[in-house]
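User: Predict the full complex structure for these chains.
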Amino acid sequence: MNNKTIRAIKGTQDILPEESIKWQSLEDQIRKITSHYGYHEIRTPAFEKTKLFSRSVGEETDIVSKEMYSWTDQGGEDLTLKPELTASVARAFIQHNLGRINPINKLYYIDALFRRERPQKGRYRQFHQFGVEAFGSEHPEIDAEVIALAISIFKSLGLEGLKLNLNSIGSPECRINYRAALQKFLKPHFSELTETSQKRFNDNPLRILDTKASHEIKILEDAPNISDYLTNEDQTHFNEVIEYLDILEIQYKLMPRLVRGLDYYTRTTFEITSSNLGAQNAICGGGRYDGLTEMLGGKPTPGIGFAAGMERVLLLMKSKQFNKNKVQIYIVSLGEKTRATVIKLAQDLRNQSLNTEFDLLRRSLKAQLKEANKMNVKYAIIIGDKELESNQLEVKDFLTGNQQKVELNKIIEHMNSLSF
RNA sequence: GUGGGUGUAGCUCAAUAGGUUAGAGCACCUGAUUGUGGUUCAGGAGGUUGUGGGUUCGAGACCCAUCACUCACCCCA
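Assistant: Here is the predicted structure of the two-chain assembly.
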């Protein structure tokens, strides 16, 4: 391959027709299930003010500190391609006063996001997520509904071997207490911690819980659990979420170490993982963010949502069969005199909602039939000089090979009467 | 940002230990006498072996650099 040809940017990919039918089928499923749950689509711009993300996602997170595609535009504004969606949706929610129009707002999205990470399996620089955000209710029913919705989508896609991990990180007050307790516990081990953990010790000690370094995991075995620091209200809330999940017969695993990376999470956090994905095994992550709208200057409004990585979901759907749109009729033409008739006939058939193709390369009869065969058409209509003169077209059944003559002015009616 | 692996035709891969003109399968195109697809047969097109340098009488192969892809770390969906 020529070195000078322009290629797609690293970490981005073209979705060719063979792939895009899978995307369409996934998107159809998402729209169907979310509508069963009463969620409506929201679409937000591809880029936002940089401030939006630094304020909501958190200055110290990897996303904001090193992964955003940001630039200053000609007017001197600092802008960023969306690295995640909750912040954008919350911004739109506030901007349009959705909370005043309706006390509860249930939104879903399917969108492209951008992060400048080193690509690997299931991780790209432009990637796609679907997800939901529900604003307005602090009650555990909505936590359960959101989780059930996610599970329901994955189930409808036929995914197997998924695990739901669940935790509550409480409200800001108890996090402050827990944070202090964790720091106190870790202090004697400080010198044993990795460099990044040492850095997090002050900035965001909860994220040390996420470590994968085995010696740190060992140290953390005896660390205090956040569940012991939850307020009564937080504990009651979490218990009710669990109770609902039991009623809905949704399996979960309590994971006291599950703290989500982004600053805006409160109370319920969850993730759904698959063992069939390699290192990037989370297909869905979410949780409650009761303080987010306030953090962004809006009226305090509780909220909860999740985001799922579509590329990762598609990796799991690999074995599934997808149906391409079938070509139903191929019009074979012979000789230049027939061309006008063919193009008009194709148009008429297409207007009847029949998927119709004809030869665009002025190829031989044989080549056209070959093409028709490759497309797996049900019928071919053959028009040559003979047929043009007699007004009798040949309609060939590709399965049986049988042909019958049909008058030109009855062909639409005839084709409509056939089964495809 | 760090580390490993891999770069040969559109795709999947060959090319003994460095030795002529780099091959095969699939896909593509043409043909097998008049205007009929699938199967078969015959033929054709398609490559500066990612790129640049080096070692050698001789490099697809060995060495160095570079780029790309890929997997993993960090982190995340």
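The domain at 329-417 of chain A is CATH 3.40.50.800 (Rossmann fold).
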